[in-house]
Amino acid sequence: MSATASATAPVAHPARRPVVTGLPAIQVVPTPAPMKGFVLATIACIVLFCGALATVFMLNTAMVEGAYKIQEQQVLLNDLADTRNTLVDEISEASTAGALRERAESMGLVPATEIRHVDLGPGVVTGGSVDSGQ
């Protein structure tokens, strides 16, 4: 759009408003009907909100309590696993041939000079230097 076109455009004037003569007619409007149940609905909403908030707090507290119990049990389980591993190590050390020999000698036992076997089928003792069929 050029500058000359806007200069030649006619300017629109707003229409004049009619002048009001005399006093306007005022009518009495009836009051709106009182809102029935507004207070009850408000109280119900507040109770529901407080109940939901209390439920969230109780669930959160229960979850935290459960987490503490789980943590306690996990610590106990770790302690028991450590104790088990310690006992397994002690048993392994005590079960070695050298440790068993030392313990047997401390109790007064001597190594066997001849080894015999009991055969449960026929009920005989075999082995050693002399086979006795007992």
Short description:
The protein is mostly helical.
Topology readout:
Elements: H1 3-8, H2 38-94, H3 97-106, E1 116-119, E2 124-127
Antiparallel strand pairs: 1-2
Q: Could you list the spans in which at least 5 consecutive residues all have pLDDT below 50?
A: none
How much helix, percentage-wise, in residues? 40-55%
Which class do the helix and strand fractions yield? Answer: mainly alpha
Distance between the termini: 134 Å
H/E series: HHHEE
Give me the count of strands.
Answer: 2
Q: How is the main sheet built? A: 2 strands, antiparallel
Strand fraction equals 5-15%
Distinct helical segment count = 3
Kindly state the mean pLDDT as a whole number? 85
Overall 3D form: rod-shaped
Q: List the strand order in the largest sheet.
A: 1-2
- Using only C-alpha atoms, the radius of gyration works out to 52 Å
